[in-house]
């Protein structure tokens, strides 16, 4: 898909009034300037969408001081569903009763991200449509977090039999239903470590687009409900939750689908990933990603892990086991504008394909970024990527890695 969105009140001043403020800098080598968070009132001078420091277009005041929204055009170019579009709206606000920053045990200052609420809708040329809403909230100076969303989907997807059911053949499936993901985070002490409790729920009615494909997908069960409880550990030292320039995000996730939790199927899902960011120079940042996913048990075909890389269609390469490596370099040409280049490799294997028999699938691409909200360190842009079979582009809001 083409939209991606990564995850104190301040007194308001008249747009033409200059108000003194105290700012806490958070280092951001990528932009050459530090995203800042106001402890009192944001310095305001000029227009609502003009940064008083450099005079460039900036949405920081609109989003943080005026509870504004960030419009996100959804341009769908994923070959899995065809071309299409839609619109998303993201609303930002400071967490009630929380400071804009927190002090880590080593004395460094960490930004507490704003609360974000979003809603979006899209439709594509093959009849796929979806409507969703969700949010990310922070409580008690970021001791607790909530992240969740609910979506209504009516999707036409092409699945492939390679790696699971024999020779590669494309099968068109319509999937209609409700999807929900809910997570509660609890910080462990003063550390950058979180214990996460999750509930994943999907009530999906999969139907073949062609009845003749029924013989190819012998494990197709209609009107399936999958429900899981999960536990995870997440370690997050990123300097910025939107467009990081240093630090790590590492997570180990486990999900257990069982009839005791309201599921029609019983299986287990696991994921381990690490995202790392290193400033190579004042305006150059290297990012590396390692991501592994696996499932065990009676897994519906549409819940199998797949290679998730820009330039490769969703669910194109599935298996009981999937591994991915990806790198990205960001070069800030000016304090506002930057260029990115990335490449990745993934491999999917499973019951009928061993790791050695599976092939590497490689993708690569380039893009640009604009820092649209300096006080948040939030960058937006466009990526153009190509894989083994397709070329496509993506609108990015924040980091492309989830």
UniProtKB/TrEMBL annotation:
Keywords: Membrane. It holds the Pfam family Omp85. Residues 218-401 form the Bacterial surface antigen (D15) domain. GO terms for cellular component: outer membrane. InterPro entries: Bac_surfAg_D15. It is found in: Membrane. This is BamA/TamA family outer membrane protein.
């Amino acid at each position: 898909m083409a939209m991606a969105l990564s995850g104190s009140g301040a007194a308001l001043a008249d747009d033409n009034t200059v108000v003194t403020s105290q700012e806490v800098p958070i280092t951001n080598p990528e932009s050459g300037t530090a995203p800042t968070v106001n402890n009192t009132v944001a310095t305001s001078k000029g227009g609502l969408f003009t940064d008083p420091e450099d005079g460039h277009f900036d949405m920081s005041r609109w989003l943080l001081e005026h509870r504004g929204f960030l419009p996100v055009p959804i341009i769908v170019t994923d070959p899995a569903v065809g071309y299409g579009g839609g619109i998303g709206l993201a609303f930002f606000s400071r967490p009630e009763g929380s400071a804009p920053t927190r002090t880590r045990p080593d004395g460094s200052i960490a930004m507490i991200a704003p609360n974000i609420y979003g809603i979006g809708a899209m439709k594509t040329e093959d009849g796929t449509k979806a409507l969703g809403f969700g949010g990310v909230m922070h409580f008690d100076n970021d001791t607790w977090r909530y992240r969740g969303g609910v979506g209504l989907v009516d999707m036409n997807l092409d699945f492939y039999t390679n790696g699971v059911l024999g020779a590669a053949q494309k099968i068109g499936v319509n999937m209609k239903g409700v999807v929900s993901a809910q997570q509660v985070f609890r910080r462990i002490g003063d550390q950058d470590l979180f214990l996460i409790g999750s509930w994943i729920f999907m009530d999906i009615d999969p139907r073949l687009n062609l009845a003749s494909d029924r013989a190819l997908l012998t494990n197709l069960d209609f009107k399936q409900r999958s429900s899981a409880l999960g536990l995870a550990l997440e370690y997050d030292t990123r300097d910025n939750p939107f467009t990081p320039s240093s630090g790590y995000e590492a997570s180990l996730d486990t999900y257990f689908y069982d009839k005791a939790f309201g599921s029609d199927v019983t299986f287990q899902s696991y994921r381990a990933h690490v995202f790392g960011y290193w400033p190579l120079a004042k305006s150059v940042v290297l990012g590396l990603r390692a991501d592994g996913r696996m499932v065990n048990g009676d897994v519906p075909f549409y819940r199998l892990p797949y290679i998730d890389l820009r330039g490769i269609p969703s669910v194109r390469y599935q298996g009981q086991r999937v591994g991915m490596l990806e790198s990205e370099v960001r070069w800030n040409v000016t304090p506002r504008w930057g260029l990115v280049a990335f490449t990745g490799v993934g491999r999917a294997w499973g019951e009928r394909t061993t790791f050695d028999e599976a092939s590497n699938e490689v993708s690569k691409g380039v893009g640009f970024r604009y820092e649209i909200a300096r006080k948040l360190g939030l960058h937006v842009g466009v990526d153009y990527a190509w894989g083994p079979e397709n070329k496509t582009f993506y609108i990015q809001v924040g980091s492309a890695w989830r």
